[in-house]
Amino acid sequence: MNSHLKPFSRIVAIICSLGLMAVLLVPLWRIELSAPQYPEGLVLKIYPHKLGGDVEVINGLNHYIGMRTLHAKDFIEFTVLPYIIGLLAVFGLLSAWVNRKWFFVSWVLFFIFFGIVAMADFYRWEYNYGHNLDESAAIKVPGMAYQPPLIGYKKLLNFGAYSIPDIGGWIFIAVGLLLVIALFLELRRTVKITKGFEIKTSIIALISIFMLSSCSKGPKVINYGTDGCDFCKMTISDKRFGGELLTRKGKAYKFDDMHCINSFLQSNFIDSAEIAEIYLVDFSRPGTFIISEESIFLKSEVLRSPMGGNIAAFKEKDSMAKFIQQYPGESLSWNEIKNQ
Questions:
Q1: pLDDT grade for 243, boundaries at 50, 70 and 90
Q2: Which domains does the chain have, with CATH numbers?
Q3: d(CA 146, CA 223)
């Protein structure tokens, strides 16, 4: 049985090793904070060996709510992480040079193990950071924790926290994807999986899963009775009204009324270029989203929506026609709604 690596695997090992070396120079992760008092937003950048971004401003805010201030010297990870990443890069080059399957497989498995441990450690740090609060803090909200999301978006008081990989993190993900593909091809030779269709299907499925997990599209679920409107801060409870604004980064802003959506847009809190889509609730199908540009609207004072916008969205004219007699008013387009 051939114990040497495929040329493809050796090339992948070299490329991935160079990518890991580049990771040492760029931020791995970023946590973005947005709030009305900080229209430009705040960002915390996490490098392999230090913290960057608006660290001092964030530390000032943390002081008021009892969270620990952030200092690189307090994290042992910043001491050992560069060495671990460097070691992974060296072992990758060695695997290409040694040209032995067992060495390459051991390296890939160690990389995967390191990735799992690193994310678990990051979650542990976020949990401690957001839950271990100073009892003498100036601002205390009973039962409130400030743990940032591991990945994605989370509302923390009046701040929106968005956690995503930075340049180094995306390199790490790309390296992991390449290594898993190369590992699969090498193991395929070992177990003698010869059907080309299975190989292609497995690779396509792997890439699809990665893309779906990294680039989640579409509106987020509104938890009625729990989620708050991102403009008026009232609890969203009426499933017939409101909607959701989704940014290009996947951050979702939820609203309980068309009045709040319009007011939010007019505040320019989000640059129009950053808006991916606006979804509205179909009045005829409570809790169901429709795209704003494809919607038609009925404005009637009889509707009595949560914040007095008194505008209902519909996907089809036939659906709206069923409600006009019950809620007499005027029919409007999306452009007319936005210009009100």
A1: very high
A2: 7-214 (1.20.140), 243-338 (no CATH)
A3: 20
